[in-house]
Amino acid sequence: MIATGVIVEYNPFHNGHLHHIRQSRKETNADIVIAVMSGHFLQRGEPSFVDKWTRTKMALASGADLVVELPYVYATAQASDFAKGGISILDAMCCDYFSFGSEEGNITPFLNSYSLLQEQNDTLQQMIRDAIQTGISYPQALNTAYKQLIPTNELSFVDLSKPNNILGFHYIEEANKIHSNIKAVTIQRIKAGYHDAIEADSTIASATGIRQAIFEENSIDAIVSYMPLDSFKGLEEWRKSNISFGSWETFWPLLRFTIIRHTPQELANFAEVTEGIEYLLLRAARESESFVSFMQKVKSKRYTWTRIQRMLTHIFTGFTWECLKSFKQPSYIRLLGMTRNGQNYLSTKKKDFTLPIISRAASSNDAMLMQDIHATDLYMLALSGPANTKRMGLDYKTPPIRV
């Protein structure tokens, strides 16, 4: 059985994701598509729009055969560590291919860029350090250094200023780093860019555009044409049973409380909080009645919106530098859902997996898993309020979804 893996957030699952799964299956002749999906907090430092089980159902209804969780420590990390978690799990599950969407749409420039940066790594790292000293962010420093290293020859190189290209590059880098036999495939992203708003004459929109439209209209009706029917029904069900969709604006009262209750010295202990920004975070939280006004006070050339949000995610969940440094590699495969085809794959291949499968949270006390469970409870608390105790401990109460 040919297995192709994808590393995803599906926040929420839309027609662009459907295109990616279908094309990935076609390009690799896959019998099985395995999705490693982020849980309740995401790579850009945001709460997920809907919970991981709702997004699992969306994925299984639209072409994924297995959905497993990308642990919190990797799901909320910068691109290189996000890639490390995802690729390690796909490799452990004996995938033949991994497929990612990119602005480039052609794998050759990625491979050329990887070879170039491997050969010039010492020079690259020094150039990045020099660029950061000017006050720019790490992604900007990487792209600046990279552009200076690109030779003028007939080879094509990937544009590393594009968000999906950057992730794709790190996927390839990680697969090589762990000496995996898994092969890389990329699918051209169609029409909508990562941050684009929805367009009335299209059926493709970014997840960012879809979320934006729902919040602005306070309705999901405007986005029905941009999603598979099962995904739209999932949002309908969520709307009926929850106070709100997940966002930092919704979480702001609890997040603000969490920041203010700590001293600057305590805030500095949380992962990614560096260089004295804890004083600014505390002052801005005291002065801001909304999340947007808080971010406008904190964001700068040095600290991007995404980097700040990742700090806030770790403050909100209590994830410290000590916790971060204690995790070296993914230690399990957390099963969220499967089709019958996926179940057959597990029955056939799990003896070859290099990580244990966890289908019941109660069967393990792994520290990395405990962090995922803790994050789920805080996510549910922020959405449902303290009176709704039914949503506490959902990781223990929810078995893998079967389709």
SSE order and pairing:
Blueprint: E1 3-8, H1 15-28, E2 32-38, H2 52-61, E3 66-70, H3 72-75, H4 79-92, E4 97-102, H5 107-119, H6 121-132, H7 138-149, H8 163-177, E5 183-188, H9 207-217, H10 229-241, H11 248-260, H12 264-267, H13 277-287, H14 291-298, H15 305-317, H16 321-326, E6 333-338, H17 340-349, E7 357-358, H18 367-384, H19 394-397, E8 401-402
Parallel strand pairs: 1-2, 1-4, 2-3, 4-5, 6-7, 6-8
Antiparallel strand pairs: 3-6
Enzyme class: ligase
Pfam families: HIGH_NTase1
Family: Belongs to the TmcAL family.
Describe the structure in your own words.
With 403 residues, this protein is an alpha/beta fold. The protein has two domains: 3-103 and 187-244 and 329-402, Rossmann fold, CATH 3.40.50; 248-325, no CATH class. The protein contains 19 helices and eight strands. The chain has helices at residues 15-28, 52-61, 72-75, 79-92, 107-119, 121-132, 138-149, 163-177, 207-217, 229-241, 248-260, 264-267, 277-287, 291-298, 305-317, 321-326, 340-349, 367-384, 394-397; strands spanning 3-8, 32-38, 66-70, 97-102, 183-188, 333-338, 357-358, 401-402. Strands 1, 2, 3, 4, 5, 6, 7 and 8 form an eight-stranded mixed sheet that branches. Helix 5 packs across helix 8 and helix 13 (277-287) packs antiparallel against helix 14. The longest helix is centred in the C-terminal third of the chain and has 18 residues, at 367-384. The protein is globular. The two termini are 19 Å apart. The model has no long low-confidence stretch (mean pLDDT 92).
